[in-house]
Amino acid sequence: MGQFITKPLAALIVAMALQAHALQIISVSPQGEVARVRQVVAKFDEGAVNFGDPKAPSPLSLSCSDAQATKGNGRWISEREWAFEFENDLPPGVSCSLNVVPTFKSPKSQLITGNTSYKFNTGGPFVQNIRPGTYQRIDEEQYFLLQLNGPATLQSIKDNVWCAAEGLGERVPVKLIEGQERDALLKSQHLDKAAAKDPLQFVTLACNRRLTPASKVQLVYGKGVSTPSGVPNSVEKRYNFQVREPFSASFNCERENAQSACLPIRPMNLNFNAPVPRKLAEGIRLKSGKDTLKPVFDSDSGDGNNVVSNITFKPLFAEQTQFTLELPKDFKDASGRTLRNADNFPLKVATGAMPPLAKFAAAPFGIVERFAEPQAKAAGPDVPALLPVTLRNVEAALQVKGLAPAGKVSDLQATTDADIIAWFRKVQRY
Fold it and tell me: How far apart are CA 412 and CA 423, in angstroms?
């Protein structure tokens, strides 16, 4: 019996055949709202061009709201992948559309079917860089510098950026830093030239109240920060900071035990938890009834225009002596903060007695002396060799008289490899 095919069925078969041989885009990136855009990529389900063909046409046309910002070039990455590279990252507030070129055909004469239009936008301004970094301790009146990916209106910054301080249940508004203070801040970060070209891309601000020392604070870049064209940011970002401790100074010296006075043969140190101008630190004095001592600085602390975090008084000091550590008047750190523990100064310190000592006279090594003294030569060859030792405040039972040795130094006789290695390790360690 013969078979007949109806017209609707024939049309369906033809459509299915054409669809089987159609060229389709399987993915396009980016789509929707994307903050950072430098490249557009379209991928096909099969080869769309002869790869390496320099005359291969573009399958998509790109159209953006900012023609100047969307300069770039399209190229085939492979026979199935096409990309458009922008010259620079797209600024905020740019919307783009991609449309299939209707005349584009593959080497097999396939037209692109399916979705023929794609859209994306870069949204509102976002923070590319913030200074200081969140790893740094900040000042109680810290200035912040935000580098955005594009211009943002100052009013939207004031309305949608705030500080969240620990212990406060309300937002702390920000104040914009302007004029000479802004210029100095930008110059210190080497951003003055870039900011001159696009001033709205660089935001300088501070929390509108003094922060509590040693507290935590967040700088909140909220939703709604807008471009001059009115495109708002839709993502909130929080930056966590730690406010530094109050300015303080601490004294330390080496002691025999916690209750003892300072060892007169070891340095005395004054440490600061914040940088202090060296010129000011040079005025610190350690005074006794007879002497006035000046601090000694490391060679890498530079001249008087630099800052220091500690000072040192070098020994020897007079033993069993009372000292007074005095600070200059109006002593402050490099930020102008007064000392939290200023009531501790002038600080009374004292030295104890010289500690016990037993060492080679030619420390750090000993020299065996043969006939070193005239009376030893006169005594003849039977007098043993001497190993001079300096003693101070050691046991009273230790007797040292004339040429009579207080102890015996034996010859080392290492007879095995293990003994030799053991002594060699001791020499290395000491």
Answer: 10
Residue 402 banded pLDDT, cuts 50, 70, 90: very low
Order the strands of the 95-100 sheet from edge to edge: 32-33, 117-121, 95-100, 60-64
How far separated are the first and last CA of the chain, in Å rounded? 110
Q: Token digits for 392?
A: 């101070």
- Whole-number Å distance between alpha carbons of 94 and 231: 9
Phi, psi angle pair for 184, to nearest 5°: -65, -40
Q: 58: how many CB neighbours lie within 10 A of its CB?
A: 16
Pseudo-torsion of CA 403, 405, 406, 409, nearest 10°? 150
Helix (H, G, I), strand (E, B) or coil at 158: helix
The pTM of the full predicted model, rounded to 2 decimals, is 0.65
**Residue pLDDT, tens place only, 9-51:** 544 444 444 444 689 999 999 999 888 899 999 999 999 999 8
Alpha-carbon radius of gyration of the chain: 40
- Tell me 401's DSSP state: B
3-state helix, strand, coil in the chain (%, to 5): 15, 35, 50
